[in-house]
Design goal:
It comes from Stylosanthes scabra. Keywords: Aspartyl protease, Hydrolase, Protease. Belongs to the peptidase A1 family. InterPro entries: Aspartic_peptidase_A1 (IPR001461), Aspartic_peptidase_AS (IPR001969), CND41-like (IPR033873), PEPTIDASE_A1 (IPR033121), Peptidase_aspartic_dom_sf (IPR021109), TAXi_C (IPR032799), TAXi_N (IPR032861). The protein is of the alpha+beta class. The protein is built from 9 helices and 31 strands. It has a 16-stranded mixed beta sheet that branches. Strands 19-18-24-25 form a 4-stranded antiparallel beta sheet. A 4-stranded antiparallel beta sheet has the order 22-23-27-26, with no helix packed on it.
């Protein structure tokens, strides 16, 4: 069974989301929040009863991937249908979280502004709440980092999830029919029906969780799609990529590295072993242990790759040497190595190659090397973590134009250079 969806960038012309211009520094500031969220993964806290929350009233498929901006930053969404009859919803896809949720009528407490019509469970014949005594409800603690609540009259299970500082969703944990494509549906899909939602989800209707927890889309659809998915992020905001579930597009150029068992990956994230980096033909003098100290993950929701400070300073110095003939430009937020390329028709860029466990090497495309604010401010798309013990994050700029294959059952991650053609 295979399903494919279009992937669109949230700020691209293919996006139907209103063009409220998000500045590059805002995108990067939101990315800082995303990284803080990953580094902290939210301390546990209990949600208690619904009155505290103001809820008293209350086989294989391919989707086109479009570029969005996760939790407002540089991210990607797909369109799926929820309910019977279905309501079409644009959901951000996120390999770093597990719970899938959308805003729901009657928005008992609060709904932010979204582009799509808000899903109304009372109009769907396939919707049902989960009770708080169900074992399905108790697994929310490990998926969201918050203990579930219980509605005092209906005994419905209440979830709550936070992302970074100010974005969150609270609502009823429920079952519903999910429509991937015209011929492909998932019945009794577990999702969050959000009655109190706030944050910078950029007009999307919510989020589809592709993490490793039993509650994630990947694990819920294991019998149908065999815990395999792949995506290609569009190289520019005006292009369309894809997100496919089920057997990956067969390709001889996909090279696989084993998922790492490093503790940094926790229960949600996909761990990687980075063993080295080459810039302009020279291997950086950084040992594999520099990366293994904090461990490494791949994340579709982080824009800029974060490296251990030791590795970043070696990368920056080699890259600056290779770019010495181009005039520097001012820094952009966390990006400290920028160039003014307005006077050039073509440029020569030092090639960056990542080496992963199992001897796999991945050449980054030019689109995966730079963050382009304008032709006068083209920046190296890497930033240092605060400390070598912080988790390294392989972000979505570096994944551009690569086919990325998650074979979760097989315990491996594949990279196909030029896999988006």
């Amino acid at each position: 069974m295979k399903t494919t969806l279009d992937v669109v960038h949230k700020h691209g012309p293919c996006s139907k989301h209103k063009k409220t211009q998000t500045s590059h520094s805002e995108i990067l500031n939101l990315d800082i929040e995303r990284v803080k969220y990953i580094h902290s993964k939210i301390p546990k806290n209990s949600l208690g009863h619904d009155d505290e929350l103001g809820l008293k009233q209350l086989d294989s498929a391919t989707l086109p991937a479009k570029s969005g901006s996760l939790i407002g930053s540089g991210n990607y969404f797909v369109v799926v249908g929820l309910g019977t009859p279905k309501t079409e919803l644009s959901l951000i896809f996120d390999t770093g979280s597990d719970l899938t949720w959308t805003q729901c009528e009657p928005c008992v407490k609060s709904c932010y502004k979204q582009q799509d019509q808000i899903y109304d469970p009372s109009k769907s014949s396939s919707y049902s709440n989960i009770t708080c005594t169900s074992s399905l409800c108790t697994q929310l603690s490990t998926a969201t980092g918050n203990d579930p609540g219980c509605a005092s009259t209906s005994k419905a299970c209440i979830y709550g999830i936070q992302y970074g500082d100010s974005s969150f969703s609270v609502g009823f944990f429920s079952h519903e029919r999910l429509t991937m494509t015209d011929t492909d549906t998932v019945d009794n899909f577990l999702f969050g029906c959000g009655q109190n939602n706030q944050g910078l989800f950029g007009g999307s209707a919510g989020l589809i969780g592709l993490g490793r927890h039993p509650i994630s889309f990947v694990q819920q659809t294991a019998a149908k799609y065999h815990k395999t998915f792949s995506y290609c992020l569009p190289s520019t905001a005006s292009n369309i990529g894809y997100l496919s579930f089920g057997a990956a597009r067969a390709s001889s150029y996909v090279k696989y590295t084993p998922f790492s068992s490093n503790s940094a990956a926790g229960t949600s994230f996909y761990g990687l072993d980075i063993t080295g980096i080459t810039v302009g033909g020279s291997k950086l003098p950084v040992s594999a242990s520099t990366f293994s100290t904090g461990g490494a993950i791949i994340d579709s929701g982080t824009v800029i790759t974060r490296l251990p400070p030791t590795a970043y300073s070696a990368l920056r110095s080699a890259f600056r040497q290779g770019m010495s003939k181009y005039p520097p430009a001012s820094r952009l937020s966390i990006l400290d190595t920028c160039y003014d390329l307005s006077g050039y028709k073509t440029i020569t860029v030092p090639k960056i190659i990542f080496e992963f466990g199992g001897g796999v090497t991945v050449d980054l495309a030019a689109a995966g090397t730079f963050y382009v604010a304008s032709v006068k401010q083209v920046c190296l798309a890497f930033a240092p973590n605060g400390d070598d013990s912080d988790v390294t994050i392989f972000g979505n700029v570096q994944q551009k134009t690569l086919q990325v294959v998650y074979d979760v059952g097989g315990g491996k991650l594949g990279f196909g250079v030029g896999g988006c053609k």
